Backbone:
């Protein structure tokens, strides 16, 4: 049956002389990826599941690939198709990193089943104020597009429910202390026995193995241990943490990508795998040049307030009534800054001819620029910088953020700010994913 | 870079001469290579192509036909003007996944503004909420807005690849710094949108969880995160302040948030009595998340950081042995492979023209002579 659909394929379902310059149909000798729904169906009706049949929701007549005539199957031409439709995620995560990742997967069309312990449920349900009709806004902000099931994993019959769900899910995401789920019978090795296609994504504080693997992980701690806190704060002041849990969020972002990488890999291999995401690794990886400076040049990092170690001028300047942030990252932009500030003599100064030199002589240059910036209001400067090609901006409060026309314009009000009704309150405004995946027909 | 780590073949297009701006960012440099550039460009090939030269543009057109994904961060409209917009390229390659990264979005009132992390951090509210409790705003010490956008983008590209399996077609993705950071405001934003609560700076503390912050110790600081009642009781146990667990004002997180000043004062007074190392040891096995505020040196001396393979070493053709922070995610299906060092500008121009576009030596030489492309002396 499969070869009827794909006449150019050999009987073992590999593309003949696959030309990687054209089609990227990733088919394997064992057949294509079967969605959880199809697996469930075929488990009940074995006669319907010849090897290699594309899962039912996806199956359709093939169309000619536009470039060189290879055959591929496809469904409707992309109007409102979401990438992860048909993917079922068993979500055993709590707090932020995991729920943030599964929220994005839900935004992309996956069916997310959030498992919570009966009673309190996800810790964040209790985090506040503020609450809205006794619902924690912290919880609400990162849990849309999910179903919640309350299951006691320690109850034998609750455990059995989870076992059965794991069989019919494509992805399991968890953030337990490493080893804990294994102890309960839900480890990767155990579940992959009954569901070899399961993509098992573990999120932890420090990693699945190693000296710290048993330490509970939270953003604030990971931020401190990973060096993030050390590098954030006023130039001559104490360390602070980023105002929102960027370590947690970065981990969630790494995880959502890793899950999709695993889904892509499964198209080729037909098998699942185990993913190790953790707060420490996510944040240390994100140290990027800060880390490279230390590892290669022995240069310890320090705090810079709003400024940048390697780029000048790149910081906030006090204005008459507040502050403006300016980012002149190359010579062209620096010249334009001087033009707007009416300080063209600076462009001739030998000490400021390149970024490297500006970094070297930063104190003097920044002093000169600061003295000029403080002479006008923020709004005045913003207007003067319009069209200059220099990145500038105000330090917006949250109110100012959501009054910004671009914030609402991003996808005409629906991308960054959507409102809908859910029980028991009247309207809740939540942030929708920043991704736009326009329909192919547009 | 992450896509390269996951096995993709990444062809980095740079303008002949200066190349990627970050090649000039420093000090520090290593053998005249910018460490900023080196830290985020492994596992890629570099071709030096002048997009404004007609023959250079033709090279890009041909490459776009045989690539799965195109990622760009030009000012919206600019590539279209040069003939490389999504609508144009998808005509010749309908499977092309075209991911645009910009400061503010592909359309809208700010779409033409150049976007950089510092500005986006300010405009999106991130700077407003970061800094000492009674001090000025600061930016996160590394460009988390940029990085979050890159992370959203790498996921989006893979989502699009998954979608292409079903539809057979590519699509256009709009990632931008503003949206990435505003989305990441999560509860901070929800607090404002629903309860009208403006955010403020909290230093190392947390608005909705107490105690969750750094405390001064005798010789430095320790960060403690007691996020539920069980952990709070354990903190009191380690601090030998069990009476606090009986105090009606501290019975739940909600109450602890309400009476934070008093509670934090009591805890602070105790923390300052011992060294950081002493407290860390006492908290071992307590189940309470705690940690020191590590310098970068301390980070890379940490045994877990080393265990996680976060120091990735490779040999660069001119800078010699270099080390960069390694990939964050481990997959059971493949080991973190030997990385390819960040390329010199135009290091792979000839290789790509020959192996991917099948150009003859003659054509390649003509292109080099015309200045449309350039090849580094190292290949």
Residues:
């Amino acid at each position: 049956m499969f070869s009827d659909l794909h006449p150019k394929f050999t009987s073992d379902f590999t593309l003949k002389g696959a030309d990687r310059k054209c089609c990227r149909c990733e088919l394997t000798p064992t057949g294509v990826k079967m969605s959880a729904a199809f697996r469930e169906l075929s488990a009940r009706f074995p006669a319907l599941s010849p090897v290699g049949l594309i899962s039912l929701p996806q199956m359709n007549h093939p169309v000619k690939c536009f470039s060189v005539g290879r055959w591929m199957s496809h469904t409707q031409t992309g109007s409102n198709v979401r990438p992860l439709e048909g993917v079922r995620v068993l979500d055993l995560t709590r707090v932020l990193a995991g729920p943030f990742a599964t929220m994005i997967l839900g935004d992309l069309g996956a069916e997310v089943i959030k498992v919570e312990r009966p009673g309190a449920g996800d810790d964040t349900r209790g985090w506040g104020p503020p609450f809205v009709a006794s619902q924690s806004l912290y919880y609400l902000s990162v849990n849309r597009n999910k179903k919640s099931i309350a299951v006691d994993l320690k109850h034998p019959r609750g455990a059995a429910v989870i076992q059965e769900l794991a069989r019919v899910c494509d992805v399991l995401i968890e953030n337990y202390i490493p080893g804990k789920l294994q102890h309960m019978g839900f480890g990767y090795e155990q579940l992959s026995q009954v569901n070899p296609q399961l993509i098992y994504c573990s999120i932890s504080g420090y990693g699945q193995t190693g000296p710290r693997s048993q330490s509970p992980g939270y953003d604030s701690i990971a931020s401190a241990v990973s060096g993030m806190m050390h590098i954030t704060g006023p130039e001559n002041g104490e360390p602070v943490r980023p105002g929102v849990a960027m370590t947690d969020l970065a981990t969630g972002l790494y995880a959502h990508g890793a899950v999709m990488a695993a889904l892509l890999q499964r198209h080729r291999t037909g098998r699942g795998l185990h993913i190790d995401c953790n707060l420490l690794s996510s944040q240390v990886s994100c140290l990027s040049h800060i880390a490279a400076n230390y590892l290669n040049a022995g240069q310890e990092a320090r705090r810079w307030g709003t400024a940048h170690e390697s780029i000048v001028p790149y910081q906030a300047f006090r204005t008459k009534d507040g502050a403006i942030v300016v980012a002149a990252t190359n010579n062209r932009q620096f010249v334009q800054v001087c033009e707007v500030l009416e300080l063209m003599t600076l462009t001739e100064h030998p000490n400021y001819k390149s970024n490297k030199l500006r970094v070297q002589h930063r104190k003097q240059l920044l002093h000169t620029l600061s003295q000029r910036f403080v002479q006008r209001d923020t709004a005045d400067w913003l207007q003067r910088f319009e069209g200059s090609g220099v990145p500038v901006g105000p330090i917006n409060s949250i109110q100012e953020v959501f009054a910004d026309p671009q914030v609402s314009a991003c996808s005409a009000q629906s991308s960054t700010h959507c409102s809908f009704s859910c029980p028991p309150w009247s309207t809740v405004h939540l942030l929708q994913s920043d991704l736009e995946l326009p329909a192919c027909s547009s």
